[in-house]
Amino acid sequence: MQKKALLRKLLHKHKIEGILITDLANVRYLTGFTGSSGFAVITARHAILATDFRYQEQVRQEVKGWSIKIERTERSKEIKDICEVYNIRRLGFEDHNITYGFYGKLIKRRISLKPLTNAVESLRIIKSPAELSYIKASVKRAETAFRKLIPFIKAGTTERKLALKLEELLKLEGCKRLPFEVIVAAGFRSALPHAKPSDRRIKKGDLIVFDWGGEFEGYFSDMTRTVLIRGVDISKQKEIYHKVLEAQKRAIEAVSAGIGASVVDAAARDYIKQQGYDEYFGHGTGHGVGLAVHEKPVVSWRSKDTIEEDMIFTIEPGIYLPGFGGVRIEDMIAVRKNRAEVLTSLPKKLKIIEV
Q1: Which stretches does DSSP call E strand in the chain?
Q2: pLDDT score recorded for residue 154
Q3: Statement to judge: residues 210 and 349 lie in one domain
Q4: Looking at residue 2, what is its pLDDT?
Q5: In which residue ranges of the chain is pLDDT below 70?
Q6: How many CB atoms lie within 10 A of CB 234?
Q7: pLDDT of res. 331
Q8: Going edge to edge, which strands form the sheet with 183-186?
Q9: Which range marks the domain in which residue 342 is found?
Q10: Is the pTM of this model over 0.70?
Q11: Are residues 157 and 290 in the same domain?
């Protein structure tokens, strides 16, 4: 069924005549428009996409099957005008993407509003064959860039230099933008799950966490690998690496359509707890990836999401020992009926960089 038709089912359910879409990722998902300004309105019979003068040529090239409106005045008035033209008495809106100030402007225009949660996100959670192909291409770009980075990983260089090099390599592979700032964290700083690259120099015995992603046609990938610089005594580093690897393996093997996302999380978390490291794994096991690098489903102990076929998400357990270092291993998977198809292909055998 067409995306517009699926979204229109919400009109009767919520007793509204139109739905306002302002999240640009959702606008792109529904229309194909890649500009940085715009909104969409869907009614029972009409679909309107509005953007400003800068994109009037681009929008007509990218978008088919939508009525195009070029904004000429303040946005809340444009929306009011659409409501009057298309007889929208009550307008649904994305509750996560309207500021309080803009909400106030719409109210002053005497637009009757109904907040909607995950209106488009509930559609985006299941990936089409085309979306899967884009994500696979994004994965390939990211992996190729990392393979080209490996010769630069050595003692004496800095986290920042490695991060900048990886960003450069990702752009050279064709990524128009990155899903997030590349994470490179070494030594004791690898125990910070979202560390920003610093000028700390890589040392012997360091664990180095690399977390990065690629892009293709607006779709993202997200992966993490941890490598180790050869040192005098690296037994502890190897121990926690192999425990994280086993936890990840168990979570991947737990994936099956119809189970709760929390079950996948528990497969990794319970193993890490059994090994005595439960207090050192505090984040969720994974998250959906697509037009945004963090989207549904949420794979954590708190998640109420159910795993369904054709979902795509990460599996990324970790162990982080303050003052010592940390390990995270992250792959992307697509859900098949009774298994996970692993989309990432970089080796997970611990890579030890010789000094």
Answers
A1: 18-21, 39-43, 47-51, 67-70, 90-94, 112-116, 183-186, 207-212, 215-216, 219-220, 223-229, 286-288, 295-299, 312-315, 318-321, 325-328, 331-335, 340-342, 351-353
A2: 96
A3: yes
A4: 86
A5: 1
A6: 18
A7: 98
A8: 183-186, 207-212, 223-229, 351-353
A9: 129-353
A10: yes
A11: yes
